[in-house]
Amino acid sequence: MTLESPSITLISIFSQILSAVLCLAFAFKTNPYFKFSKDDLKFDTKLVSKVIKLGVPLSLQYSLIAISTMALQSVVNSFGVTATATFTSTSRIESIIHQPYQTIATAVSTFAGQNYGAKKMRRIVRGYRDSLKIMAIFTVVMLVVMQLFSKYIMMIFVKEPEVIAMGTKALKITSLFYITLGGLYVIRGVSNGLGDGLFALINGVVEVFGRFIVPIALVSVPFIGVWGIWWSTGIVWAVSGITAWLRYIYYGGKKMKLKYSDLKNLRNDYDSDLPIQVEQ
Fold first, then answer.
1. What number of CA atoms fall less than 13 Å from residue 153's CA on the CB side?
2. Distance separating alpha carbons of residues 276 and 129, to the nearest angstrom
3. pLDDT by residue (tens digit) across 128-168?
4. Crossing angle for the helix pair 178-193 and 81-117, to the nearest 10 degrees
5. What is the pLDDT of residues 49-101, one digit of tens each?
6. What is the dihedral of CA 151, 155, 157, 163, to 10 degrees?
7. 3 in the Ramachandran plot: left (φ > 0), alpha (ψ -120 to 50) or beta?
8. Helices (DSSP H) in the chain: which residue ranges?
9. How far is the C-alpha of 252 from the C-alpha of 259, rounded, in Å?
């Protein structure tokens, strides 16, 4: 059956609405947190202020990242159909790679938020470090997979030989930077858990400037050319990751008030902690 583009759009919207309704219905039925009482209808100024403080920078971050992606797409389109098809295919493949990193970030964000509220600062650091270890293991596996089998992965998504050849090399390039991408996700999760709303905005601005400037600079270099598209992707991941790490060192140290001796003597379990005063 052949469907016109508007029909596909309407089907997508309807499926998302149906999914949202079913999820809400299930949540209301099974989880007491979704059930409202009269007290819940009272306006809490302090709570709303906290939500806005964290939520607005996060929403701006995703908006800025979307803008930066469009900027990169304009550079890709200038290289013709083959480059555009290759970029589209590699982006879809890498969106799958992002999923485990996002899952780790979500988990460590929840973990950090809960322990920050309980004033168990050293548990946050241990969770952060263990998340980095999990991320590193996954990264090594995916690096090997992409370096050895990127051609066969491309063949799953496309059939054109020239797109497969270009995509194979492109995936090998970006896979070299997976470690910085994973680190970025982990640090982003911890920072969100600590309530660092400004980090999200800083991260979004870095990505916008990176995706505007780096691709244009690299593709103009004769011996790099079209490959600058994928090198720039990796470089932006690296710059964003380093920026995130510096922000975590500053903000995390300020919020958790841990000294170097505290971090050095962390135990291997999650049951012990120091009675540290949390900065409000």
1. 24
2. 19
3. 999 999 999 999 999 999 999 999 999 999 999 999 999 99
4. 40
5. 877 877 777 777 777 777 777 778 888 888 999 999 999 999 999 999 999 99
6. 70
7. beta
8. 5-30, 45-77, 81-117, 121-157, 161-175, 178-193, 197-219, 228-247, 253-256, 260-264
9. 11
